[in-house]
Every structure is written in structure tokens, then in C-alpha cells.
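Late entry, evening session. Most of the bench is empty. Finally got around to the prediction I had been postponing all week. Sequence below, unchanged from the version circulated by S.P.
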Amino acid sequence: MATKIVTQRCQEEQMDQMSHSMEMSSQIKKRKFKSSDEKASFSEFYPIIPGDVMSVKEILTEPKFPRHRTWEALRETMSNDELGEREQWTLFGNEAEKLEIGVIRNQHVVRERVDRFALRREAERKAAVHMKFIEDLSMKAPDFPVPLRSHSVWAGMDVKFSCTVQGCPIPSVTWYKDDVPLRGSLPWNYKLMQKFGLNVLEIRRCSAEDAGEYKVIVKSSLGEATSCASLLVNSHEGAEAKLKRLWTPIPVPVPEPDAQLDSTFPPTFVKEGESLFLQCSFTSALLPFQQDVSWYRDGVVVHESSRVELQTGLRSASLSLKHVHKEHEGLYTIRLRTWDGSVEHSAFVYVKDGSAVVVGAPGSPLQLESSDVNRDYVFLTWTPPSADGADAVQGYFIERCDIGVGKWERCNDIIQRVCQYPVMGLKENTMYQFRVCAVNQAGVGRPSKPTDPIMTSDPLEPSRTTVVKVERGREIVITKDQLEGRIRVPFPPTDVRVCELSDTYAVLSWTEPDPRGRESLTYAVERSITGKESWHLASMDMTVLSTRFAAFDQQKGKSYSYRVRSVNKYGISEPSLPSGPVSLGQPLGVPAPPNGVLPNRDTDSSVLLQWKEPKITDGIVGYYLYCSEIGSGQWKTINNKPITKTRFTVHGLKTNKEYVFRVKSVGLAGNSIYSDESPAIRVKSAISVPSCPSAITVLHCTGGEMLIGWRAPANHGGDPVRGYYLDQRQKSQSIWREVNAKPIKERQYKVTGLEEGNFYQFRVFATNIIGLGDPSEPSELFLCERWTMPEAGCPYDLEFREVRCNSLVLLWVEPVYKGQSEISGYIVDISEGAESEDWTPVTSEVVTETHLKVSGLKAGQMYRLRVSAVNDAGVGMSSVPSEPVKAQTKAGTKEIEMGVDNDGFIFLSFEAADVADGDVFKWNKNYGKAIDAGRARLENKNNRSVLTFTDASEQDLGLYTVELSRNPDVSSSFTFTAQDLERLTELSWHVRNPLIALRSEGWQVDVSEQGRVRLWLQTEDLSSAAVLRLILNDSEISSTPARKINFDKAQGLLEIWFDQISKEDEGSYTAQLKDGRAKNQFTLVLVDKKFQDTLAKSEANRRNWKRKSGPHFKEFLSWTVTSDCELIIKCKVTNMNKDTCLKWFKDGVELSQAVYEPSGVSTFTVAQVTRKELGVYRAVVSDSRGEDDSVLELIDDEFERMVQQLNKQCALSAGPVRIQCTAQGFKLYCSLKYYMSCMQTSWHFKDKRVAEERSRPGSSMQKLWIEIFDPSESDKGKYTLEMFDGQETHQRSLDLSGQAFADALLEYQRLKQVEFAEKNRAKVTKGLPDVVAIMEEKSLCLTCFADGDPVPEMFWLKNDRELVSSGQYNITHENKSSTLTVNHVTMEDSGNYSIFVRNKHGSQTVPVTVSVYKQGEKPRADAVQL
């Protein structure tokens, strides 16, 4: 048996080695052989630990490891050579077999007895430590142990480029041909292979187009490496395909450029409850592999939901979030895949507190989470809000909502002070949501975001259910209750313990009885003071469904014991074992505040804030930050979601403003006190090293010396450039040599010691207070050769000023080398685009100055400019093109303003939006000439600079420019012209010789209701030293009782009051005012007509005022026509008392129909107006104090106006034209509220008046109509009713065509047929009595007459059955009449008789009741006796 086993193992090992060697022939390490019985061992479930992680010796020396003698046999077996042992086993037969079987059995016993789980954890820990150690040792930058090598082949041959790559982490590999990456779909004869660090590029059947330079670039986080090789392809004709840099490439598919992030979203501020929208655009349309754009919040993927909408277009991606909560605050990131990996952008989203429900109430809590969900119990935790409101947070109210009911209910009556709470008394298998509100002295704040719906259920239910899968996908569900016996009275619970403890409650938990039985269990919790056996029910007022119970009524300082009983429908169990002593815990203390709050400069609108956490960090869940602008006295909350780190970048700050910061620690017991305030910091960009200079050029060369110039860095890093360092190297050298040891202040340097005829390269470094920046790009190769050309050299130092949407100013410096003649001017060329080489001159003539304003630019377009000097020999060398500049006006840009100050001096002022520390305003004339200090003085204050001329004259005319010394982009210019000088000189004179200005339009004349006259004027505000002289007709006047003069200097108001103006007050009034050096005079001419009008108005107002001393009309009689076409005459009386009487008269006759209301309004209403309402109406109001009347003449034109208005209301009340079909034709009608015959109306058909041959108009009090007789197809069309009210024409129309006409015509024909049928149908003309009484044995004769065309048929019925002439019944028909004779009536002949007449047009039945009575009896009272 053992021989067979060994032989089988050897065969398996040989086959495994052969197959493994075929698959991994190039791999050095070999896989360990594993036999078939070992593959089926316990190692599939409990892995064997390698020796380098945990040796057998370590296992045997473990103190708690069980000892067994088989370990010695196992150690001997592992120490011997496996193949030799197998040969011995073959030789010794049964002994070897027994030994092997024993060893395997002992292995199983050992594995079963070892603590498998502890062993696995220890093994994983040691394996992780070991792998981390190996990984740290193996970290290596990318490298090529075997680089690429060049090849030279004949056309048509195959070639392979191969290299080996090593590095950890594994680097990415990219192949290039002539600097073009080989990605995507390669040519048919190219094949890339990568396996086990070996990278191969195979080119089959090479051709001349395959020649070139091949390169491999490997990259990782530790760096990159490059390996290059060339391929020469020789043709059989002897021509060799030379390797050239500028070759025409074969049509190798070049990967389409991938999209990159273009415009991104900034840090965003949104209010709680509002919507958030973030959007990014891309530089180009997304490629197919880039369509999956990912969004993250704090590193967690954001998925689309009912609130979150993610949209990805070809050129943009957006995130929309509805109803934002504080939990949504955080760092949002968008990630886009690219050919080289991925690019991403992140920005912080701040969620501000929503509007407070109660003024001064705290903000809403956040991060409400639930745990330990049971049948009737949930444990909640949350985070306190950042905003306390007007007072500190005192605690929290917890609310729950049964989703099926939809109503929020409060869970606690007493404020919960810590941020955790056990909720009991819930319904089982019910969906709940929870929320929390913070409370302070002002009231209850906004609720938190509700939790996700929570289903209350038994968490142990899944463990009591087993699912067994059987064939064909079927399942068998077995519950633990089915396996247990039937238990009636339950067993007691076990393991009663405390799971949550605070200073106000203790939450108990226990284990349900096992077995528990099939019936549902509830629990009764009992409590006793520790040491006593006085047990009483703790869960008195509630049914405990779950294995949790929260005790809120424990007394502090006392210790309690608890025990639990199980309850089902059969009874109550014995009590459980008592719990250990339970006492209330110590109150949670608020955490200590952080310290060492330190702000650091970051950007123009953000600050990097750092702080140190407190010494004791237990219970701290994060930090809240607060900031205050210096001088504002207000603190603002920065974040509303706790920050877990001790550094944060604060955004949204005002540039160049100073702020202080402070921090709070956040814990379950609340927030800490504020930390100490940080040092104040001014918001501005952080200082960094300058960027690299650019545009290195040669300004002059003498053969052994070169004058090198360059352009300043685009960004000085927040600190001025302190100097430059220059390096040089010759063409044949690769090492740079330092030119200057000390920094150069200027942007040009003369390099000496050069050899004429050699080529040199240069590069430049810029340095500031932080340090040395990056070097510039190496310059071109400059030939050191003496300049002797007649043309001038190149201008240099091209700079931009005053960049606006449509213009800019270009400055430059004249060339150092001027050629063989003086420079006569400059040519400025412009190129549209950042890289375009299409240059066009800006001006048609040469520019004589070293500056030029370029106008006519396109807003938002990029431009480059260059300058060439001109002398007698021609146009010289062009300057290096300028940096691309966008024609765009920066936000906050202001221009130079010119004016006159309060002292009468002419000034120029300029205000910058932002001035950094150390920035100075530089004023110049014509962009270079300094301003004479004797002619102007300069004053700078904050962001404003003022240049004031001491005595402006023609010498000061010209172009003035201003810029910031450290930020020349902030610049402006102004041309001071002769027109400006003339205008401002005049204004200056007025400032130095001021006039008192008027606010009113000269003198004003007012007459009051009492008849008093007021003359007044108002000037600007005057000082208390102002002086007034008032002159009337060349005589100075003063205040008298009849003429009072008021002069309010503070408001500049002058008044003259006349109680009763008279002829003596007529004349010319002049007010002479003087206030300091300001003075003025104002004259009012109150004579002739102006005086007479004022006098008459004064007397009239006085009389009217006297009239109003008693009852009088506030509103005189007037009439109105309502929308209901009623005439209302109205007036309003005021100043009434109980004796006041109001009467109405019409033509002298009193009207008693007038209505008088207590408010003083009296009305007289005419429902239907006729000519009788014409007349004169008068209303009189009177009492003991006096009388007043009002007259309304409703005659002549006034009556006509009233009628016209009434006609208009009647016409406006007209409804739409409708149609009514009759047997005679169509009747078109229009309903009105009221119609007057004086209103002119007419009907039109197809814009022509309706002919009267087949029509007939008509009207009533509320309707207008026209009848169209015998309509036909010619009557199809539009009908219009025109109503003329005397001024306007009102129209109502009906389009009687199409289906409407067809329906109307069909209805007309139907009614016509109905009328014809009604006219000719059979009907009874002379009827029968309703009841007939006849004595027995007499003969009954009933006769009925009928009419109709054709002559109707007539039938007699008795009790609805037809009678025929036979026996005692005799029926005769004669000339449209029929007679029924009943001979010798009997009692049986009583009944209901009727006659039925009919023809083809219709029928009619007339009934008659026959009552037969016996002789001696009285007939019916209601019957006709025969």
C-alpha cells in the first residue's frame, strides 16, 4: 500500500514539474510540490504557516499550546530527505506505510487541538509585519537592468526590441517611436509584450518607414527612467534608411488626445436646506474610456440617489444635491481618467446653518446614528451643533416618527444633556425615523437630518433560522423553535448585565432563555437595592419586548441589582440570577479646548489654520472653527461638520483683511469652551520662490563679451525678486558653469571671457527672500561674434500696462546696439493667438516713443507683440515676442479720476482694489518722466493715491500714468488736456469763492387750508454763524405779530407767515444770506396777478375753512355706472353729530329712496335708467352748527355722458353670441345685464349688414337676437353683433361654419320635422271626463272626437285591453269621432276605460274612469253623473 502511495506521489510530482516548467520556463523560483492528499488536507481551511513567519519551534514553545508525542515524530519526518524516506518506506513495506499513516493522522489531531483562530490571527499579524518589512526593503526607483539596444536590419526582416524593467512599486511602461507614444490600435506588424519584467516590441517585416528612434519610459511614484535605441533598415538596393529626427512618419495611429479638466468648481458656500450644484468642464470631448467620471465626498464615492443627481456630458460633468444638510459638508472631488492615469480636482463645500426657527435658538445637531436596534429599543448618538445661538446649549429633545402615521412625537420630556439616548417603548416590526433638536434659553432649534428608516425587529431572529439548499434550487427553512420541544412556562433569562451607562440612566441587557420555546416572549424587569431582597417591578408601566431595558429613575449614590423574568402566554418564569451592583456613572465632562491656534498665509482668499489637540483627547470627535474680521466684533462659524484633523484651510475670506481665529473641541457631552484667539493674520497669498525667468536674448556682442538680457518671472512668489544668477555652457559641454557669484539686480548682464566663434547657451535663476527658484529653459545657442551690422539690435524688456477688454499699453526699452545710425522709430507687430506666427503691424507709421497704446482688440482674445527698431539702414532685429496676454479687464479695475478738492486744488486720484505690504504708487509723465515735486505733491492713504497740483497751468498738461511698484498690472493713465484745465479752473474758483446753494426752486408761495400765506425758501445746511437780511421794497423788515419770520439755520429754511395777507404786503422780497465766505441772495416778486391770485386763494380757503366748522360734504355729489348697469349717485358727509340731517331733492322734490350710512356715505341707486332720471339733484346736510349743500345737474351733456357710460357698461356686459335652433330657422342671441333702446345695435353677416328679407331682429331688457328664417348653405359664415355706445363700438361674433353650421342645420331640420309631426299627429280634440258615474241597468254612451292628418285610427280600451263591437258593447266611428255604447251596465262594467288614437305622426291616449252604482246608492262625488 505504501509503495503505491509513494509511486503515485512521484508521478504527480514529475507531471507537475513538467507542466510548471513549460509554463514558467523563464521564472527562477519554483513552486513547491503538493500531493493530492495534501491538497485535500485541512490546509484548505486552516493554512499552513511558512517557516519565516512562525516556525514549529515557536509553536511548540507556546505556553498554552497542547503537548503531544506525535510532534517528535513530525519533527523527525521534516528533518529527513523526503525522497530517501520514500525509498526506505518502499523497502520496509508495512512499517513505512504505518509510519506515514500515523504521521498524517497525528497531523490532523494536532490541527484539531490547536486554537485555530488564535493561530490564524497571530500568523496574519506576523505575515503582515514580514510583508511590510520585505516591501520596505524592496522599494526601488525604476531602472533598466538590461536596456534597449540598437538594431540594423535588412528590409523584410523581423526585429525585436527588448529590455528588462525593475522597480518597486511596479512602474508603468510606455513605448515611443520618434516621441510619439505607441498606444491604442498599433500598426499590423507591431506587437507589444510584457511578462515578468521583460518588455518586448516586435516588428515584423521591417520597411524603411519603420526606421527611427525607439524609446521606453518607465514611471513610478519614486521617479522615472528612460532607455533609447535606434533602428536602421537597409534596402537590398544598397540604400540605407538614415535615422533622421525630421522624418515623415508612417500612418501610425496616434491616440486621440484625452480630455483634461478645464474650468473647475471653487470652494462653495450653501445654506442648509438649499440645493448644491457643482460643475466642471473639460478641455475637449470625453473619450469613450473617460465617460465614467467619479465624484467623492471626503474620499467616499458619491452615488446617484433621489437627492443626488450626477450628469456627465461630452464636455462637462455636474453634481446636483437637493435639500443640503450639514452631513453633506466636506471635501468634494471629481476624478477623470486619462491616458496617464487620472486627474482630479477637489474643493471644500461649506454648509451654513439654516434660518433659526426661534430667534437666538441653537443650530441643528448632525450625524445622528442608530445602533443596537431591537424589537422595541434603539440607541441613538449624534454630534452637537457648532452654533449655540444666543445662549449655551442646555440639552436635546429626541423625536420619532412612525412612517406609517407620519407624525413626529417627542421621546423625552426631560432635556437630554449628552449626545446619546436609549429609546424604548417602540412598536415591533415598525418603520421609524428619528431626529434631534438642540435647546437653549431662547428655545428649541432646527431639527437634525432624520435618520434613514429603521425597522424594529428581533436581531436574533436570523440566527434561529437555517436554510438548507436542495436540488433544483429549492430551499428548506428550518427554525430553531421547530427543533426544540414544546415548552410552556419559559425558562429564565441569563447573563443580566449593563451595556450602556451614564449619569442619568443605565441600560441593561440579557440573554434570552435557551431553549426559548415557540411562543413569543416578553420580559419583566425587577430591581432591588444591593444587599436587600426587596424586589419590585422596575418595568411597571411598559411591556419589555427586547433584551434591553433602560432605567432612568435610579437615585445617584445608590447601588441596585436587577433580575429579569421571561413571560409568555403560559406563564412567568423564575427570576434570572441578579446582576452585579449597578450605579449611575459619572457625568461626561466637556472636552478641553485646543491650544496653539496658528494661522498661515495660503491664498488671496484663504488661510491655513493649524492647532494642537488638548492633552486629553478621550471623547473628542472633532473640532469646530470660528473666525472674526478685525474691527467687526462678530464671530462667524467656519465649519458645521466637525474636522477630525488639526489643520484646515479656511476659504471665503476677504483679501487684504485681518482675521483672528479660535477653535472648539467637540464631544458627546457638548462643545468645549473657545480656545485662545490666534494671532491676527492678513489674508494674502503665501510667499514662495519666484517662477523661472524667460526670453533670454543677446542684446550686444563685442567678440569676447556678450550682453545677455531676459524677462522677469511671471510670478515673483509674493516677495520682490532680490536678484538673478546666470549659468553658461558651450555647445560641446553638458555641465553648466556659474557666471556670477553675487545676485544681479538688473535683468541684463555682461558675460566676459568668451571665445569668439564659439556657441554658448545660458540659463537664469531668480531669487527672493524664500530662496532660489527653478532655472529658466536653456536659451538658444548664441554665436559669440562681434556685431558690425548697420541695423539696430533688438529692443527688450517688453511689458504690458493698462490691459483692458479692447486695448492695452506696450512698453519697451530701446536697443543697446543702435547700429551705424541713430534710431528713428519703432515698428510694433501683433499676432492673434498664443502661438500664432502671423505677425501684422499695429500702426502704418513708425512709433517714435518707447510706448504704444494698442486699441481695437477683441475681448477675451490672446495676443502676442514684438518690437523692431528702425534706423537709416532699415529695420533691425525683432525683440523676443512678449508673453501671451488676454484682452480682459480684471474685476475691480479702476481708472484715474480728476477733480477739485475742498481747497480748490486740481488733483488726479487712483484707487487700487488690493495693495500688498510694501507696494508703492509710482506716478510718471509719459510713462517715464518723473513729475516735478515743485508742481505737484503726492499723498498715499490705504488703497488710494492722490496727485495734487499746487498751481495747475499749461505746463502740467500731458499724459500721466500710475502703477503699483510690485504689481505693474494694476495701472492706469489719464491725459490732462487744455479743456480739462479750463473746466477745472472755473470749478476751482467756485470752490474758493462759494455760493450758498438752494435746495428749493427759489421762493415758494403756499396757502394753507385756513387761508394763511407762507413765503419760504430752503438752502443747503448753514452754520450757526449764518446771517440773514430780509428786504421788502428796499426796506429791511423784521418779524411782527401779523408777519412772522422763522429762520432755521441747521436746515437752511427761511419762512414768512401771514395770518391774513393784505394789500400792504404786495412787493418784492429779497433774502440776503452769508455763512463764512459763502454768500448769496434770493428775490421774490409778489405783485400784480401773482399777488391777486394769492390773495383770492387765501380768502377762498378761509371761507371754506369756516364752512367746514359744521357738517359739510367731504365728497360732493357724483354719479357712477356699475358693472351691473346701475346708476349710483353718491356723496360723503363729514363732521357730523347726532342732530345732523341729510336730505335729497330732485327738481325740488324730496327723494326718500336715498340710503344714508353711519360712515357718512349716502347713495341713491337707479336699477334701470330711463329718461325720467334726467334732472337736477341736490343734497343738503345741516344741524345747529350750520348747513352745506351739493348740487349735481344731470341734464343735457351730463345726462348724455351718463347714458353713454351706461351704454358702454351694457355693451361690456354682453356675453358671447350663441345659437338657438327653432322650427323656423336659426335664432342668434346675445345676453346682456341690461339693454337700453338708445344703444345702437346692428347684425352683420360676412362684414355686411344682415338683409331683412329672411331675418328679423329683436330685443328685450336682457337679450338681443336676430332670427334667420329657412337657413341654407348660403347662410354659412361669421355673424357679428355691433353695439355702439356713443363713442366706441363693441363687437360679439359667432363663426357659424364647418361642423357648427352642419350641427345647427341638422337640428333645425329635426325641429322642423318635429313641428310638422306635432301639427299633424293624432290627438283627441274633445276629451272625456275623468270620472263617469252611471246607475246599474242604464246604457253608457261615451263619445270622443279626434283630429290629425292623415285621419287617425281610434280604439277603445278597458283596463288596457281593446274592446270590439259585440254583445253589450257597440262602437261606431263617424267623421273623426268614435262612440262607445255599453248597454245595461252592471257592476262588472266599472273600470278604467280609455280611447287610443294614432296615425303615422303619433298617438294619444285619453283615460276615463267608469263607476257603476246601484239604485239607491249615491254616486262618487268627483264623478260626472250620466
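Two things to note before I forget:
The mean pLDDT is 84.
The radius of gyration is 56 Å.
Will write this up properly tomorrow.
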